Structures are given as structure tokens and as C-alpha cells.
Amino acid sequence: MGRGRSFQVGGNAFAVVLRAWARPIFLILLLLILFIFGTVIAVFAWPQQATASVSGIVTDVDGPVAGALVRVQTTANHTYTDEDGGFTLQGIPTAESVTLVAWAEGYIFGWTEAIGGDEEVGIELHPHNRVDNSVYDWEPSENCGECHPSYSEWQRDAHSQSAVNVRFLTMYNGTDVEGNRSRNSNYYTGLPRTRDPDDPYFGPGFKVDFPKRDGNCAACHTPMASKLDADNSCGWNGCHMQETSDASDELPDGVSPNEAVGVAAEGISCDFCHKIGAVTFYTDTVLPDPAMPGILSLTLYRPKSGEDLLMGTVDDVARPKDSFNQLHRESAFCASCHYGVNDTTEIYNSYGEWLESPYSDPDTGQTCQNCHMPEAPRLTSGMESLVQTAAWLEKTSGRTLPAALGKLAERSQRSYFVYPEKGGLFRNLDQIHLHQMPGANDEQFLRSAISLEVAAEFEGTELVVNTEVSNTGAGHHYPTGSPLRQVLLVVRATDNGGEELALVAGEVLPEWAGDVAGLAGQGYAKILRDTLTGEEPTFSHWRMVELVEDSRIPALSSRKGMFRFALPNGESAQGSDEINIEVQLIYRRAFQQLQQWKGWTDPDILLASEAFGVAASTAE
């Protein structure tokens, strides 16, 4: 029987035919036909619907609510209520109803249906919970994945791994990846033990230095690991030794990242972020209080049992217990965990670096979210039709489309932040923010923010190589965050026989650069010294430390270098063979010595490179 006749009684005949014919060439042809058909329809658009205005009032239990936002759901059509709570919206269809959603600060969304011409439409707002319930049971993020495409993106985000990150846990516990542990250092006594070179050593660790304290790591890495109040400074900072807490009815236990199990092992979850209501900043600065890291500087709105509250960036959600929060659109949302101070020494401060950069300009700048949670990629109208057609074809055929066609179908879900089969509404892509949050774990993202320029010339008996490394796209220093990170510029010049030319002037990479130490180049890093032991660089940032140097590249800034190499046998350029130049820009997640102790296997990332030959004829 021919393919086109394989019908089944009681089945979907079209789907059966489609399965048989759903091979790449036929899929492509069908896709093109449907695309052309959709374009024709768009050109000869349906007649304009008749519209009229809608007026009404927004109230709460006490009466009218002034200044409330009222929006036609999923559209740009919106207004604000006057001092009497009244509003009027123009351009509302008279033939079919639309959803009007209202919101005001401190309230959950209210909504109603209306058609053009309606008057005296009423929308009632109810205040959301303003008291944090610390014994709230956090929701697993997989529950969110039932309806939200962003769940799979979050799973690829470093925030979802903050509680189980092997670098974090081995640094916290003083172990290597195999679980071998370094000896306690006695650091907490003020007289740290000198490390015996014959003693097995698996790198530093907070618990090696402070075995009876939990520290404050959990305040950022595992904030769901305790039922403590969010402002319980002693508990979240892990101030007291375990014996002290056990002997007191008033002093709380600390919070150990090692005890993060279940939902707490999700690190920074969907539910945690969408319960954040406010960030508290230190009265003397525009930064959080240095003594209140992470959760301690956050106002959480965890509801009572049986209730719920979720806040986010979309201001027209017709769902019970949801609310809009402007903070979620602002860099301030990130501040409490991306600013860390030990005593008076700043350890990391990505938020403060952004504040001091041109990117923080409210009119021309970019927020953290603009780069790390960007709007979904915008499609042209024609491309959007193609994407939606691919999604329909995949669903109808019951098969995953091959290669690029499958990618098109996958992108169709980014027009929704709730799956359409779960009631999600088609939205403009600027309302949908990607949740994989690229950062130090994304090579392409790292490369996109940095540039390398190289030029070379002969001067007498020397070859001069000029370099310029520019932070072109990061809204903070490059690198940023953990002081373990570094970027290395490595400059090599060799003759035709592969022999390296001697460097006669210019910087060389420091000892901490590991396998490239001593080579021509520059290191961009934040170097700290242990105040008690003099170790430099120190990796134990929880100890008393002091800043030695900060050679990282601020936002929209550059670092230039000049390196002079002696030509072979003291020849001049005219008597020299072609010289080969290779310049590499390398991103290293942690100091090589530390990686060896811990057994970390993160490879170097080549950010940029230039390789070329220079002969006398091209250098003049």
C-alpha cells in the first residue's frame, strides 16, 4: 500500500500521512509552503476590529487605589488610576473581551474581563503578605518546570549548582575532590601551624581553619538550608563555636552548607528568588552592609501555610497570589550576594564595580539582568512565522524535527513564559528573560566581553610587540567575582627554527601564573596576602587578608603592553628572517597550584589569540 494510503479507522489520517512523509526534504518544502501562506495572510490582513474605550475604578478594602497600573494583558496598552482610583483605556475591541490586569505596590494582581464600551468596570486589589514566615517549606524547582520553559534553563545556570559546586565544597571543607582532607591549621587560635612539607596537603579550607564554626558561606550558597529568620545575624554568620551554641538557649546554631539536603541542595532556586521583596543597603554607602551578606540583606516574603506569593518582572499576570516587583528588573537585586567583605578588605564586589562603571547610568546603561538574563532573542515577523510553523509541524507529526528545524521548534516556546498547553499566553519576547544566566561557565559569553589587539614592528636589532586588551562588554571588572579567577596575556616570539627570542624589555608573568610564569605577558587578577602568615597570593579569603594588587580591567577600560625581543644573533631587521609572533589571552578559573591541590580539572579557556609572521619587508 502506498504511503499516502496508510489510513487508520478512528485515527488522525492527516497525522498518519505526515509521519510517513516527515523526512527532511518534505518537511522543508512543507515548511516553506506554510511560511509563504502565512506571509500572504499577513499582507492581506483581516479588517480592523471596531474599538471603544473602557472606564472603571480600582479599589481595595479601604476604597479607591490611586496610581495603580491597569494594563490590557500581554499588550502595551496601559494607564494609571487617578487620585479617585479611576481609569480609562482606549482601543478596546467591542466584539471580544480582553483581560484587564491591575497592580499597585504592595498588592497582588487583580483582573477582570471587559469589552470596548464597558463603563464602571471594577477591579479589586488585595495586599500581599508583608511578614516573612521563616518556617516556610520551600517549593522544589521541578514543580515550576511543569509549566515554565525557563526551568531547564535554570538547571544549566550556576545558581542552581551553588550548593553542590565542587570548587565551593572542597574549599569550604579543606578537601580534594576525592574527599582527602588537610590537617587542621590551628588558625582560629591566632597561631596558625606552619605547614609541614612532608604532610599530605589538599589545599585550604574554611573548616580546616575554623573546625568548630560554620561561617557565613550558607548565607549566599545555601540560603534555604535553615529555618532561621533572614535577619538572624549570629546564625547566618556562624559567629559562635558549636559548643557555645549548644550551651545556650538563645544563641542559634550556625548554618552549614554540608547540611543542605532536599530542596536546600538546589542552592538558589526559583522559589527563593521569586520570594525576594527588597534589598537593604548600608546607610553610609550604596552597598549592602558588609556584615550582612546574602540572605541577611534580603527582605523575604515567605507566606503562611496554605498561602503563596511569587514576584517577578511581568506586570500583568492574571493569577492568584502573584505580584510585580520592580526590584527584579534592577541590578540591586543581585547586590547582597555579589559583594563580599572580610573585616575591612573587599574580597569581591561585582555589584560595586558595576555601580562605578558607565553601565550604571540609568539613562544609557545596562543592568546585570540585561547581560545575564537577557530578553529572549527577538525574531523578525517572518522568522516568527517560520518558528511557530516548525513547532506546529513537530507537535502534529509526533516526531522531533531534524537538526536546524528542531532548533526552530524549540525556540517557539520562548514566546511564552508558561507553556501554552498550561494556559500560557503568547507574549512579546521583551517580556521573557532567559534563565541560564551565562557567566564564568560560558566560554562564548566570556569571549564576547573582551578584545585583543596586537601590532609588531622592528626597531634596530629588536622586535617590538604592542598589545592592548580591552574590557569591551562586561559591566564590571574583567575578571570579576572570586579572586581565584585570572586572565593571562602570553606573548611569544620565535625565529624560523622555533627558537624563542629573548625578552629584553617588558613585563613577565608572575610566579602565580603557573606553567606560563616567566614568559612575556601580563596577568589580570586580584592578589590578596594572608596578614598573619604572609602567604601571597592567599586562597583563604576567610582569613585576615590584605590587598596586594588589583590588575583586573575595569568596564570599558584597556591594558596596554610593550614587549621588546632581541633579534637572533643581534641582527638588524634587514638581516633577519621572518619572526613568528603568537599572543594568547587565557582565562583561568583558579590558580594552578590550587587546582593541583584540589584535583580540579577545569581547563584553561582561550579567550582570544593572534598569530602571524613579521619580516623586514612588512615591518618597515
TrEMBL record:
One GO molecular-function entry: oxidoreductase activity
A Pfam family: CarboxypepD_reg
InterPro entries in alphabetical order: CarboxyPept-like_regulatory (IPR008969), Multihaem_cyt_sf (IPR036280), Multiheme_Cytochr_ET (IPR051829)
This protein's UniProt keywords: Membrane, Signal, Transmembrane, Transmembrane helix
Residue stretches in coiled coil: none
Residues passing through the membrane, by range: 21-46
PANTHER family on file: CYTOCHROME C-TYPE PROTEIN NRFB, DISSIMILATORY SULFITE REDUCTASE SIRA
Protein name (database record): Uncharacterized protein
